[in-house]
Amino acid sequence: MSQIKIFDTTLRDGEQSPGVNLNKQEKLEIAKQLERWGVDRMEAGFPASSQGDFEAVKAIAQTIKNTSVTGLARTNKADIDTAWEALKYAEEPRIHLFLATSPIHMTYKLKQTPEQVMANAVSMVRYAKEKFPQVEWSAEDASRSDRQFLAQIIENVIDAGATVINLPDTVGYTTPDEYGDMFRFIRETVPNIDQVELSCHCHNDLGLAVANSIAAVENGVTQVEGTINGIGERAGNASLEEVAVALRVRADHYPYQTGLKLDETKRTSDLIAKLTGMYVQANKAIVGRNAFQHEAGIHQDGVLKNKETYEIMTPEMVGVKANTLFLGKHSGRHAFKDRVSELGIDLSDDKLKEAFEMFKALTDHKKEVTDDDLYTILMEIQTDTSAVNKYQLEMFQVQYGTSNIPTATISLTAPDGRSLETACTGQGSVEALYRTLDALIEEELHLADYQLNSVGRGKDALAESHVQLTVDGETMNGRGTAQDVLEASVNAFLNAVNRYIVQKNTVKEEQVVK
Ligand code: KIV
Ligand code: ZN
User: Fold this and answer.
1) Minimal CA–CA distance to 242: which of 253, 234, 255, 231?
2) What is the 3-state secondary structure (H, E, C) of 227-289?
3) pTM score > 0.70 for this model?
4) Which segments carry the region annotation Regulatory domain (predicted)?
């Protein structure tokens, strides 16, 4: 079995998904879960793209020990220097440099000749190698590049010190045969290719990203790049859980293995979905809600007689568990603490106390608190670590009936301590609540998206709401959980506004420190 390295770019290419914006604490939580999942490399962000990304990459580089942390950079000295400042703390600092090589990108986007692109790539790989022991170089839009030019530039950047060569299918255009053949050609043509690792990076515009990645592996690639749940630009990236599980389940056909702990897959997927608000479709392979459900009578009958009639893998293999009963009304602090640490979540004593109080409040309304419920509460507490004053909900009330106009009344405490209260009407309860919040909050607000889901099943399931707001022109996501759908909706709205306030204050603090 040859070993395939997994390069996760959920925090960089995944975070480029429309509408996704994660704060530093959330990125750190994702990074810790990726480390637990066992990815070999993680792309923590694009340090030169913003102060927020820089800080997140730095925090991840300082925290993660068992996975090599990398950051994206354009081929210019300023990007490389900034990336070094963020990544120098990592156990094995790694940089990912990219430059487009296709005629269309060189002509229209870069406005450079192939000779200029070649010279730039070589000199910047050499410059990066003075600082970073590991330098990955990507030929952006490789699958639409001229192969002879590609072979020449690869040979030159290897001579300049590159350690990994990545050939992305940036626009998700290639087919498995074509993509595999490109790697075969490069391996046969580039004389120094044995000095580096070859990597693939596929986008999913034609739904071929996983198939293309596997075709690349069959043609000598030893690193696969992708994201959890396949999130990313446009139609997303190759879904890493699909690649890894396909290699495991079809080990009879594919002589390759990854180092992933597959039973951490579902938890990794759930975390990304919760924090990004990008929930996976029910029929998504491996991690979708229906991936292991059998609906048709003939299938159910077959599975009862022998699981393998309709199951090619077990749910346990990827960490899908029956939603186990966790703790109830009479569970004490110790049992609670033990379960939190079994879920792999670190909380300070104060946060643990807060979580226990939330859990107790929940058991007043919900008889069976499951791992899913607990995980949802804990994620909310764990990723909210800012001490900045925010809007606080004091109370809300809604009058709704089929024959009257829905009216909401809300009281808030403003960040400066003032008490605020007003009432507004709307077409429905949620609209009345959101119009009332809009009237109370001084920032300029526009609601762009609203989602409501249930955590688990059953009539007492927790409600989880996600909203996307523009706050003073900035796109912010918010999420809220509660037993009641209206309370979850209010919490999500306030969460988005409060994230904006925290972000604004953090930027101010960073400017003062500078
Ligand atoms: O898709 C792509 O080409 C990329 C590069 C930055 C590697 O994401
Ligand atoms: Zn990409």
Assistant:
1) 231
2) EHHHCCCCCCECEHHHHHHHHHHCCCCCCEEECCCHHHHHHHHHHHHHHHCCCCCCCCCCCCC
3) yes
4) 392-514
Question: Residue 98 belongs to what H/E stretch?
Answer: strand 94-100
* Residue 311 confidence (pLDDT): 87
The answer to whether position 428 is within a domain reads yes
Task: Residue 14: name the closest of 194, 209, 197 by CA.
Answer: 209
Q: Tens digits of per-residue pLDDT, 397-452?
A: 999 999 999 999 999 999 999 999 999 999 999 999 999 999 999 999 999 999 99
Q: Which residues have CB under 6 Å of ligand 1?
A: 13, 72, 98, 138, 140, 168, 170, 201, 203
Here the contacts of 480-483 (C-beta below 8 Å, separation 24 or greater) are 480/380, 481/376, 481/377, 481/380, 481/455, 483/362, 483/365, 483/366
DSSP 442-459: -S-EEEEEEEEEEESSST
Q: Domain range for residue 374?
A: 333-382
Spatial contact of 306 and 360, defined as CB atoms under 8 Å apart: no
Take atom 5 of ligand 1 and give the residue whose Cα is closest. Answer: 140
- Whether residues 151 and 171 fall in one domain: yes
- Binding-site entries for Mn(2+): 13, 201, 203, 237
User: Residue 203 has which token pair?
Assistant: 């986008």
Count structural domains, the chain.
3
Residue 218 falls inside a structural domain: yes
CA of 66 to the centre of ligand 2 (A): 24
Below-50 pLDDT ranges, the chain: 513-514
The structure tokens listed for 453 are: 């889901």
CA–centroid distance, 140 to ligand 1, in Å, is: 6
